[in-house]
Amino acid sequence: MAGEIFNAAILSSSLILVGLGLGFLFLKIQGPEEE
Q1: Residue 32 carries which DSSP code?
Q2: What is the rounded CA–CA span in Å between residue 29 and residue 35?
């Protein structure tokens, strides 16, 4: 059962990381000269 929890944690954390990366890239592409 610990394996299932471990897999779920890895999946959720990787999804969060991917979401953050995509959001960051989108912001950089959307306004590269907005500083």
Answers
A1: T
A2: 13
Q: HEC profile for 1-35?
A: CHHHHHHHHHHHHHHHHHHHHHHHHHHHHHCCCCC
Longest dimension (CA), the chain: 49
Question: What would the two tokens of residue 25 be?
Answer: 């890239």
- Where residue 31 falls (left for φ over 0; alpha for ψ -120 to 50; beta otherwise) is beta
Q: What are the 10-residue block averages of pLDDT along the chain, 35 residues in total?
A: 92 98 92 67
Threshold 0.70, pTM exceeds:
no
